[in-house]
Each structure stands twice: as structure tokens, then as C-alpha cells.
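re: ur question from yesterday

yeah so i grabbed the chain u mentioned. its 311 aa long if i counted rite. heres the sequnce exactly as i have it in my notes:
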Amino acid sequence: MSIIDPRTGNTLTAEPAAPAPSGSRPAVTRDDVIIELSAANIQQVLEASSQVPVLLTSYSPDDESCQQLLSVLEKLALEYGGAFLLARFDALATPEIAAQLGVRSVPDVKLVSQGGLVDGFQGALPEKELREWLGRYLQAPEDAPASPEEQAEAALAAGDTATARELYQTLMAQYPEHHAYQVAFAKVLVAEGALDDARALLDNLPPEERDAPAARGVRASITFSEQAPSSDEIARLNDRDDSEARYQRALRQVADGDYDTGLEGLLALMKSDRAFNDDAARKTLLQVFDALGADHPLTVAYRRRLFALLY
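ran it thru and got these C-alpha cells back, copy pasting raw so excuse formatting
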């Protein structure tokens, strides 16, 4: 498999081998794709990078983050079936290699092709980010399993908050400085109705994370859940079609996750009664955009419609 420099689009490796039959990939063993780097074999490994990309990975055996990263990298090396080699080395036990490769702290990962450095990073990236990073250079296997993050997102979307809770709690324990997991866990708490716990979790984030779009979106979800009338209150509205009733129904729909219907109702209310409750429909639309995120398809579509209505 060839490796592509995303900055130029040029091929960085030698001619790729013939592809495996559709739906399959080469069966490899750990010894096929994982190498213990040493002073005796480093030159051969660098020469091998002319044929296949190599991840030079330094670690410390006593560092938990290093062990987490190695575990995921080894899993991916096997999963990719030989599309890259993982060359690992103990930076403390082999300081001459660390010096030669310019390693200043561990864990450190360098992607090498044709004997030259292509890219690299320091620190223990979570699996989803590792997959995204590798995806910049290598085509992922067609049958690649979902990452823990993707499993958690799917579980939450399906209403399985127990599975999402367990997965995010594991990720938070593994990567305590990766605050995106705490924000995602706050979403689970909102789905479970634990609004005070969700708010407290967000309040304890560092300021730059607490005020970031993702956290603001969860706070908006908390607000919707607190402001929306109960199902019984909605039932008592009967067939009322005044602005207040329409607004309350839209709030309940948004709080229940029926964003499309809720956004449509808010936009319709804004068209028919812009002045209602001090422009509440428009303000709530903006809050929903925050909750969904700027790149969500509904945000993009309804922001465009809002702009057309205003201008």
C-alpha cells in the first residue's frame, strides 16, 4: 500500500503491492508487523521504510500513557494487515536511538517513509484520534471495527445510556486530560435526566473547555430539558394553536431530541409572530444550533433558512 503526503498529494512510498482480494486483507502475526527496535537493527528498519511506512514509537515501560498508546498501536498494526510496521523502543534503555531520532519525551511517534520523516506526534492519543491521524496517510481496512468513542456515540444515539456511560467512564479514566470525554459524558447525564450532575461536570472543566462550543451545546441541552413542559403539560394544551402553545411544543420536541420537528416549529413561529416573548423563537433556534454543533446538517440547513428569513 502506498502512502500519500496530504500536503502535496505525492506518493511517498515505493510502488504498492498488488491489492488483496476484495473484502479481505493479508493475515499477519504480531511478529510480522511489530519490531523491537535496537541499535543492531535500526538501519535495516529505516531501509525497510522504502517499501512500507514505519511508525517509530518510543516509550517508557513504567509510564501508563505509553502502555495505553502501545496497546492501541499494536492493535492497529495487526488490523491494517502489514500496511505499516510498528517499530517500538524503550527510550530509557536505548538512549542512543532516542538521541538519533530526536526524542525529547515519551510517548513519541514518528511516521517514516523512504528513510525520511513524514509526520509525528507526542503524547498518548485516544484510539479515534489515532485512526484519524493514520487515515491522513493510509487507507483504513474496510472492515475496521468501531473505536470506543464511536461505539459510545452510537449507543447514546440509540438511547442505550448504560453502554454509553460505561464506555465514556473508561475513556475518562484512561485519558483524564482529554476533556472532550467529560463533555460527552455530560451528554449521557442529560439523557439520563441527571441535569445537576451534568452541569457540575461542565462547571469543573478548565475555562477554555468550559466555554468551548461543545460544552455550550450541552448546556443548551440542559436548558431545554429544564424549560420544556412535561408530556402531561403538553397534553393539556389540547388543540391550542396560539404562539405560546406552539413554542412550548417546540421546546418539548427539542428536549426529546426531535430536533428537526422542533426547529421547523420554531422557524414557523418566528415567521408568524416574531415579537413573541421578546423574539424567543429566534433565540431558541440559536441555542439549538449551539447544542447540535456548527457542522451538524440540521444546523447548516436551518441557519441558512434563518438567514434568508432575516435578510
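noticed a couple things. The first helix runs from residue 30 to 33. also Strands lie at 34-36, 54-59, 85-90, 108-113, 116-122.
anyway ttyl
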